[in-house]
Amino acid sequence: MQKSECHGGVQLRNRVTGNCDQRISSSTQIKNRTTVQRSKSSSSTSSPESTRKHPRPSDKLNPKTINPFGEQSRTPSAFAAIYSKGGIPCRLVHGSVKHRLQWECPPENLPFDPLLITLAEGLRETKHPYTFVSKEGFRELLLVQGAADKAVPLLPRLIPVLKAALAHSDDEVFERGLNALVQLSVVVGPSLNDHLKHLLTSLSKRLRDKKFKEPITSALQKLEQHGGSGSLIIIKAKIPTYCSICC
User: Fold this and answer.
1) How far apart are CA 69 and CA 17, in angstroms?
2) H/E element holding 156?
3) CA dist., res. 176 & res. 133, Å (int)
4) What is the dihedral angle through the alpha carbons of 17, 20, 25, 30, rounded to the nearest 10 degrees?
5) Integer angstrom CA distances of residue 97 from 32, 63, 93, 136, 195
6) Structural domains counted in the chain
7) Annotated region Disordered: where (predicted)?
8) Is residue 154 part of a domain?
9) Which helix (H) or strand (E) holds 91?
10) For the chain, what is the mean pLDDT?
C-alpha cells in the first residue's frame, strides 16, 4: 500500500514538473519571437537613408534637398538689391484702400536712363513690394511730360527686357509685361514698330491659352491704334488670325 502511494506521488510530481517545463518553454519561445520582431523593426527604421550623415553629390541637384533657409534663398534679385539700396527714387506708401508711390522728387525731373529700364526689369519680380513698385513706377514715369523724347532712345535696351517678361512662365509677370508694352506703345507710337516683331512671338504662344485671348487681342488692337498701318502689317505677319480694328 505504501509503495502504491509512493508511486502515485512520483507520477504526480512528474506531471507537475512537466507542466512547469512546458510553461517555461513556451514563455521562452514568446520572448524569442518578441526579440526577433523588435530587431526586425529596428533594422527597418534604421535604413541607410536615415543613418546617412553625409549627402550624396547627386543630392545637390535635387531641389528638395536644398535648405530653404540657406544662403541661396536669401540672395536678393538685382531689382530688389537696387531698391533696398535706394536706387529707385520712390517708396511704397500703404493705404487702407490701395497703395501708391511716393517719389523723392517729381518724376518729370528724373532721368529715364537707367531708371525706366530698371523698372522694366522689375516687372519679372514675383514678390511684394517689388511687383507693385516696378509696374506702378514704370506706368507713372511714362505719364510725365516729354516722356516720348526720353523713352524712344531707350527702345533698343527696353525691348529685350519686356520680351523677357512676356516670355516668363508666371502668368502675373506676363500680364505686367503686356500692360507695360501697351503703355509704352501709347507714348512712343510708331517708333515701336521696328521692334514689334521681337515681342509678338510670345503673344502668339499665349493666345493658345483661352484666358489670355481677350487681353492679348485688346493689346494688339492698341498696338495697331498707336502704331498705325505699319504695325498692322507686322502683327498680321506674326499672328495671321488677328482681325484689324479697321475691319
Assistant:
1) 68
2) helix 155-166
3) 12
4) 180
5) 72, 39, 11, 16, 38
6) 1
7) 1-72
8) yes
9) strand 90-93
10) 81
- Of the candidates 227, 171, 167, the residue with the CA atom closest to the CA atom of residue 200: 167
Domain range spanning residue 170? 78-238
Residue-wise pLDDT tens digits, 187-205: 999 999 999 999 999 999 9
Write the single-letter amino acid at 24. I
Tens-place pLDDT, residues 103-136: 999 999 999 999 999 999 999 999 999 999 999 9
Kindly report the CATH number assigned to the domain that includes residue 97.
Answer: 1.25.40
DSSP per position, 183-234: HHHHHHGGGGHHHHHHHHHHHHHHTTSHHHHHHHHHHHHHHHHHH-HHHHHH
Three cell numbers, residue 223? 498696338
Asked if residue 159 is part of any domain, the answer here is yes
Whether residue 97 is contained in a domain is answered as yes
CA angle 224, 139, 135 (to 5 degrees): 110
The pLDDT value given to residue 67: 42
Task: Report d(CA 22, CA 39) in Å as an integer.
Answer: 26
The string of pLDDT tens digits covering residues 50-103 is 444 455 544 443 434 334 344 444 577 899 999 999 999 999 998 877 889 999
